[in-house]
Amino acid sequence: MTDRSLLKRTIVKEEIQSAHLKESRALRIYLPPGYDPKLSYRAVYCQDGEEFFNFGRIATWANQLILEEGIEPFIIIGVEVNTKVRTEEYAPFGNRFDHYLSCFAEEIVPYIEGKYPVRPEPSQRVLAGDSLGGSVSLHLALSYPELFQQIISLSGAYYEQTQHHTALETDLSWLNIFMIVGLQEDSYTTDTGVYNFVELNRNTRDLLEERGATVHYEEKDGRHIWGFWQQELPAALKYFLQ
């Protein structure tokens, strides 16, 4: 008989005070079935934390991967965001962007590593984000390569500023990124304009590959919605975790 306690997942809500953002920031922590604080775990950090849990069903997918597909248990950290200031934090032209990067790397990561048994090596961390969450994840890796070298990008919003920043890099051989974009995202309206996300992702893929990054790139039928991304999450997680 299977011990039911081994199948149980736990989702913990945390809140940290950020000196960089001058406010509190909510976190959701997924602890896998059979979680043991004496062990050590890989960590997946998600932008738009609430949406990754509610719409991406990432905790459900994680349980399935661990219990049914033999993936080594891992911890998920969902970093929540106020949608009213999301663009200001996630876009490189936002007035909270630099503060958000600093908060993530210098406050959130140390807080998690001080409280949970996650492995501190960059090879044991994955950053995940959708749309602007994908592009801010790339900026985090470019700014803090000693922390982040693996990225899941779901229809990344790689606007001109992000492409320019990427083009300034000379060696990205340390970076490994999983990119997917929907073919029906060729004219998507955002709060800052209408963009062809297929073109943005193709251009960014080329920039990354030209600089030596390892890029897993896919285009599939899909729109700029969680209904598309949710179905792609298991493959994205397995790409780094299996």
Oligomer: single chain
CATH architecture: 3-Layer(aba) Sandwich
SSE series = HEEEHHEHHEHEHEEEHEH
Shape annotation: globular
Number of strands: 10
- Rg over CA atoms, rounded to whole Å, is 17 Å
Q: Which fold does the CATH topology refer to?
A: Rossmann fold
Instruction: Tally the helices.
Output: 9
Q: Give the strand line-up of the largest sheet.
A: 1-2-4-3-5-6-7-10
Sheet-strand content, in percent, reads 15-25%
CATH superfamily: Alpha/Beta hydrolase fold, catalytic domain
Q: What's the story with the biggest beta sheet? A: 8 strands, mixed
How many structural domains are formed by the residues? 1
What is the SS-derived class? Answer: alpha/beta
Structural description of this entry:
The chain is built from nine helices and ten strands. With about 240 residues, the chain is α/β, with parallel strands linked by helices. It has a single domain, classed as Alpha/Beta hydrolase fold, catalytic domain (Rossmann fold). β8 and β9 form a beta hairpin. The chain is globular and about 45 Å long. It starts with a helix and ends with a helix. This is Putative esterase. It comes from Paenibacillus algicola. It holds the Pfam family Esterase.
